[in-house]
Amino acid sequence: MRAAVYHGPKDVRIEEVADPRIEQPGDVIIKMITTSMCGSDLYLYNGEVEELVAPGHTTLGHEICGEVVEVGSAVNRFAVGDRVTFPYSVSCGRCQSCRVGQTAHCLTSGKAIYGFGTAFGDLGGSHAEYVRSPLADDHLEHVPDSLPDDVVPFLSCNLPAAAIAVHAAEIELTDTVAVVGCGATGLLALDLIRRHTNATVYAFDPVPFRRKRAEVLGAVPMDASADAVDTSIQAVLDATHGLGVHKVVEFAGRGDAFDLSVALARPGGTISGGGVYLERDHPVSLFDMHFKNLRLVLNGFANAHTAQRHAMQLIENNVIDPTAVLTHRVSLSELPSAAEQFTTREEGFLKALITP
Ligand SMILES: [Zn+2]
Ligand SMILES: [Zn+2]
């Protein structure tokens, strides 16, 4: 089959690899119908986490709509022909972590993530024609007929992650809120946040196109680029009696974005982090956080499985249409060029849907 194989920083190639096969009785083989690129894929694509990956071996991708084409002998819930999706991480539902909702920390799967390298289970990714899904009965989900193929990959990662971060922020109807990072997931979160508060929502991002999208969703766009961010912070402080916002929902996943979140939160405020933080050495001011009595809730290593049903219902009930953040449609062979557009934050690029 064809798959996106990591060879080095910014060097992902579509090439022939061995078809995945049933290795355990609980495995299912899924044929990819649609998949998509996630912001977290860029950490791998750019070579920022080379210790996690095996060049020439690791395949990428963890968001999917697929069709079951083969089932292991112990699989009960799925049959050939079923349309399915998975949360980006594999979970058993029975271990001590899964039982308290920490499905991303599943002890049985060893925190396995589709297409995220050797350190996370060495599983094949969804940027391929086929993918093997272990522990299928325990974490794979049927897709309702009402959901078209295009929206289903959002159920693997972005929409559950957005819903979890917004829920964790505990936004009240009169809370002022700042969304930091207006990529696809940040914009989905913003769309949900607008339904949780009637007060002002500020949308911080360095990219003008993304700020425009946030403005369309009813937010006040704020420039987060390096030479403008201090002015933007001051504008929020001026508008909030010098206090800052009640809640910050952070989706950029970078140290500077976290610092921005601390600067924006008012005393007693909450920072709900949904971003993926992979910087080990970024200094954080405990002083600043302490003297604001901040509440910090991090869910970037999202327990996506726990919010997947909720995410389905958000779409089915027309609360949110994730395809609003879908800006590109490409075939698997076009993925490398789409990844480059994504990582350079090319004008007009938010998220790409990929078909075989
Ligand atoms: Zn993702
Ligand atoms: Zn488990």
Written account of the structure:
The chain is α/β, with parallel strands linked by helices and 356 residues long. The protein has two domains: 2-156 and 303-355, Medium-chain alcohol dehydrogenases, catalytic domain (Quinone Oxidoreductase, Chain A, domain 1), CATH 3.90.180; 159-298, Rossmann fold (3-Layer(aba) Sandwich). It contains eleven helices and 15 strands. Strands 3, 4, 5, 6, 7, 14 and 15 form a seven-stranded mixed beta sheet that branches. Strands 10-9-8-11-12-13 form a six-stranded parallel beta sheet, sandwiched between helices. A hairpin with a 2-residue loop joins strand 1 (2-8) and strand 2. Helix 4 (158-169) crosses helix 5 (184-193) and helix 4 (158-169) packs across helix 10 (304-316). The protein is globular. The mean pLDDT is 97. One zinc ion binds next to helix 2. Residues 185-316 form the Alcohol dehydrogenase-like C-terminal domain. Its cofactor is Zn(2+). Belongs to the zinc-containing alcohol dehydrogenase family. Residues 24-135 form the Alcohol dehydrogenase-like N-terminal domain. One of its GO terms (molecular function) is oxidoreductase activity.
Concise synopsis of the structure shown:
The protein is α/β, with parallel strands linked by helices.
Give the CATH class of the largest domain: Alpha Beta
The ordered string of helix (H) and strand (E) elements is EEEHEEHEHEHEHEHEHEHEHEHEHE
End-to-end separation? 10 Å
Quaternary arrangement of the chains shown? single chain
User: Which distinct ligands sit in these coordinates?
Assistant: zinc ion
Q: Any idea how many domains?
A: 2
The portion of residues forming beta strands comes to 15-25%
Structural class: alpha/beta
Show unreliable segments.
none
Supply the CATH architecture of the largest domain. Answer: Alpha-Beta Complex
Could you give the count of β-strands? 15
